[in-house]
Amino acid sequence: MHFVLQAGFIRVDHDYVLKSAQLAKAGGCQHFNLETSKGANKGSSFLYLRVKGEVEAEVEELGFDRFSIFRPGILLGDRQESRPSEWITKKAMAPISFLFPTAYSVPITTLVKAMLNNAVLQSDKKVDLLENKAIHALGKMEEKKS
Description:
Layout: H1 2-26, E1 31-35, H2 47-60, E2 66-71, E3 74-76, H3 84-99, E4 105-107, H4 108-120, E5 127-131, H5 132-139
Parallel strand pairs: 1-2, 2-5, 3-4
Helix pairs in contact: 1-2, 4-5
Protein name: NAD(P)-binding domain-containing protein
InterPro entries: NAD(P)-bd_dom_sf
Organism: Ranitomeya imitator (mimic poison frog)
């Protein structure tokens, strides 16, 4: 059972993501936004962080003109499915998130706004690595009026 869960996780968080990036590149996409996780590292002994790090490296190898990696900490928002360990972590981190809102967590709506704002920004960087503080800043940028 454990192996089946691992295989499913790898299929969704690595294989589908990489295939999406390959299709986007083949279709002429020049800027790819990828959401992974704080601590993503292809050399990690922790499966979750290793898979996130591996997909970052493999998407970067595709050679987009611009590649933005979003590495949020704990994502805050309501989910339809039950994740007891995530719920406990969120409750335990609530005081820290309140005192230091950009340190360990990001509301999902802030992440989405940051990704949208980043998509329209001009940047000379080929690869942007955006952690919590940068995600919060981008998520709070005023939308440009046309």
